[in-house]
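Hi there,

I know you've been waiting on this one. I reran it after we fixed the sequence typo, so this is the corrected version. Both the input and the resulting structure follow.
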Amino acid sequence: MTAAAQQPTQPQVKVNVLNVCSPSAEEKEAIVSALTRIPKQPLFSPDFEIDRGRTSLQERPGFLQPGERGQDSSESATATWVRIRREFSFQAMFSTVQYSFSHDSKNMMETLVFRVRDPKDLMQVSIEDSASSVTSPATMLSTNTPVSRIKLERFGKSSVVLARCPATEGQAAPDQSAYAPLFQNASDIVANYRGLLRAADELARVDLFGTSKPVPMPAARKSVPKNK
């Protein structure tokens, strides 16, 4: 038996490197096509889902599926969040839209996810923006924070991602002027669905604007001595 036959065959590993700063012309066209198909005036079905909560950050929170890029701070004890899901009517290309907002002591993240009803090529479109928690969530939403990341998940193909790329130490920021219309279109979509889903109303229902205050305990009733 030869030495080559004794060694087990190593599986081939394929690595796809995504150019998130400057996608190719084909990938850019795919993003344009996906954003164009998102309805501006959708017809929703009666079904919906709304979740609100506060999550400990001792472990990585899993309440936002598309928020992989969020930075979990060890100094942040908790993150408060809201998730809203609506279903489109059967005629729509997309089956559901999900809006998510999370807030901890350092970061705020807003994510909009559209899932395709009958995925053949495109499966999901996610749009994301984020801001520092130096301001309030209400201020972030009212100023319409520009989108920082667009991602297309495709069936049987690698994902397509476009992200804003800032300057790094010793290197200037890449020229992304060719992608400015895509970022603007995505920002308009988030602003539109933020209003359609009444995100501000749901954010007002959860304590996103400060730490929770303890509920005061009722004063103990004094016992009155009984007359003998």
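Quick highlight: The chain has five helices and seven strands.

Best,
R. S.
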